Fold Bifunctional glutamine synthetase adenylyltransferase/adenylyl-removing enzyme.
Amino acid sequence: MSRAATGKGTLLRLGFLVPDASLAGLHRLGSAADPLVALIARTADPDEALAGLVRLLDVVRDPDELLAALAEDEGTAMRLLSVLGASQALSDHLVRHPDHWHELADSRLGATRPAAWALRARLLEAVGADPGDPAPTATGPDARAVDALRVEYRRLLLRLAARDLSHHLGVDDVAAELSDLAAGTLDAALAIARARVPDAALARLGVVAMGKCGGHELNYVSDVDVIFVHAPAEGADENDAVRVATQLASNLIRICSDHTGEGTIWPVDAALRPEGKAGPLVRTLASHQGYYERWAQTWEFQALLKARAVAGDLALAGEFVAMTRPLVWSAAERDGFVEDTQAMRRRVIDHIPAKEAERQLKLGEGGLRDVEFAVQLLQLVHGRADERVRPPTTLSALGELTRAGYVGREDGEALHEAYAFLRTLEHRMQLYGLRRIHVVPDDEAALRRLGRSMGHLKDPVGTLEKVWQHHRREVRRLHEKLFYRPLLTAVAKIPGDEARLSPEAAEKRLAALGYLDPQGALRHLEALTSGVTRAAQIQRTLLPVLLGWFADAPDPDAGLFGFRRLSESLGSTPWYLSTLRDEGQVAERLARILATSRYATDLLEREPQGVRMLGGDLAPQPAEALTEEMLASSGRHDRPEDAVLAIRGVRRRELLRIAAGDLLGLTDVADVGAGLSRLTDATLEATLAVAGRAVRAARGLDRAPTRLAVVAMGRYGGFELSYGSDADVMFVHDPEPGADAQDAASYAQAVANELRRLLALPGPDPALEVDADLRPEGKNGPLVRTLDSYAAYYAKWSEVWEAQALLRADAVVGDPDLRRRFTELIDPLRYPADGIPEKTVFEVRRVKARVDEERLPRGADPHTHLKLGRGGLADIEWTVQLLQMRYAGAVPGLRTPRTLEALAAARDAGLVDEDDAAVLQQAWRRVSRVRNAVTLVRGKPSDELPRDIRERAAVAAVLGYPPGSSDAMVNDQLRYTRLARGVVDRVFWG
């Protein structure tokens, strides 16, 4: 592009904002302008790049040489122009030292990173010191050496910035080179200090880098955190050595920090030393060790994670690092370590000025510290047993944590990408003025320069803000996920040798934790953790914690065995192990369930996807939502058997939800019964639809000749199902107008039979037996009756027990209008307006006495039998039902199929005094809980307390008793039922 064709419009399109000044600048370049204008347009700030080049031409000894070099070598031009467009401070440095532009003409500049020893040698030579001397000392005038160090530092920094900007170095490479440059600068400053301090040879002084310098991840401008360790030289007096070492350290700090005609380098900060600024500047190795072993706080061990010997007596500094390493990798075992670290991060956020909070790149939420704290906490917890995750550099450590399975692959990649972006943005911000800043500017000019420096030439401001906010959100999300991971606290509490899970340590730990078969448990562990797969690695992380959680439950052996079976069925599923690792609540809940409940363990083996559910809400779902899901799932299948398998799959999942909520103490016993009943409602509703379709298809019918409804009876009708309950029902139908009565009855019978057949098919879910024996005439009567047939039967043949049974009738499934009409039919029968006569009361009591005598299983203890024992469920429910039969006609509140609601209504009506009602309510709830707990523990229904010691302990645990309290649980059970029996004697038997 010729200068003649380069007008204001062209410059504006190329990214120049001040075309008049830039045109003048291009004119100053002469013929070199043509090849350079496109390169200038690619810089962070084309106007500044051009202005900086013009300033440089005004001060170099041979402007023509510079222009020729730029015109002939695009690499030289791009390196120089990139620096001039991105860093005003380095542009000023070039004007002060114009010959330094030759540094950027080095064709090898972008090829490799200079070695740390080479940087150190150049800096020492700049101050007149011999790099080969064990204790190099500066020569020549002090002021000249101090300035020479600054000039040489800027020269090397200029080379790095040019490579960074034009060759797109990785942020980790830039940070590492800056750290090497800082280490060499510290050594050169110490060489000047030796020249200043008389008798410098009396003390050995080692410089240990901390923080970013120690971690090889320094910024362009940053404090360099250090700790000094000293020792007397051979034959020197200790007091003299302390004095000399203190003077050397003090001078080193001033040499780097002081402002001179050549500016400053960066502050050297020794505040991370023991006792901070109040403590001595230098200490011996023994003094350091004594402090860290006795007095150090949690944050000091986190800081030592990045300690590195960098300058001075490297052997002595290396001894310091070696001495602190065991302390660092055992720090996580300190009481409250994880909580202290988390609290420290929160304090940092709380102290950010409000006006900076949203644009704080380093300390704010979603900033660099979020990544660094999360990575360091994971390192300190897991690094005790796994040396792979100990690198001091954040990105290297994150990579190892990801490879080892402590961080998910996607999470690790997202965090790596975000951290690299944030560090690059931080570098670009600091490079402009070589100032230590961490607040992202909000003025458009600065944002435009930053965006362009990061490659966003089109819409640099908008793109930069969009990308930054995306990474900020990702960092905050992942920080919350990793840093506050509940599993970390549990892992940190495990002693380091046990966290490794070596066979010997594992077997000892298993026996100590109470596993009855430690060798069998060890075989499960070996099966889960053998090999080098990612899954095995994650299992090695999880199992030390899970073993403890299993041991806190009644049956650790069953818990571990169940976990192995579950893991073998789900181990290759991507989400399974990562969910357990990242969602500590899921892992802990799973461990407790597996080591307590055979019922829930069986459900999990049949429905392993249910593991995911353990992290969410475990409250029972409403029948409407379940019905809709079941109908949608079954509607995708043509074969009725397949359709019902889909329905039963939803039921299996929801049984697990209810059981888990019950086991974890999250769901009240009344809500468990209601939840199981609503789940049965949905199952029957969806299966009735499938059965109807199947019968119509088999008979070639377009529409049903009759309407059907299902009436819930017994505990199902009372919304009081337990895990092992059958679904007691009656079927009612009503022929459509004009339909043949026999055809309608045959159709209704076929649908009812098909419904029962489908639900009885073998399958992976617990059986749902549909029991219709409470229908009129029992097993001898027709399975399905019309509404009129029910009316005729109840009017002529109904017995007392049938009226009593109808107290729990609830028409819940099928045609809504038919359900309503059936309810209207039976209400007068079960709630007689004038109550029941005394002879009926007598009959009810007679039937109850017969039940007590004949129904109790042989050998069962009448004191502890949960259903038919003294003060058990039957006693309480018959008592409430007798009150309903006598008084529901006059007391509307008694017209409910639910025991507790009817009992509350009887109390409110004064039919039962408040104390007696409370006793019955508490006993009913208690016995119902125990009955459910027995089923959950044993995996099958039972109305008797387990005789097995471990099963009885598990029942006590489900009820919330502490370990070792199974006898107390039995005693409490006897007390509840004894008190209930007293009330039954008064209220039922009179």
Residues 3-105 form one domain. The CA atoms of residues 637 and 643 lie 5 Å apart. The two ends are 112 Å apart (CA to CA).
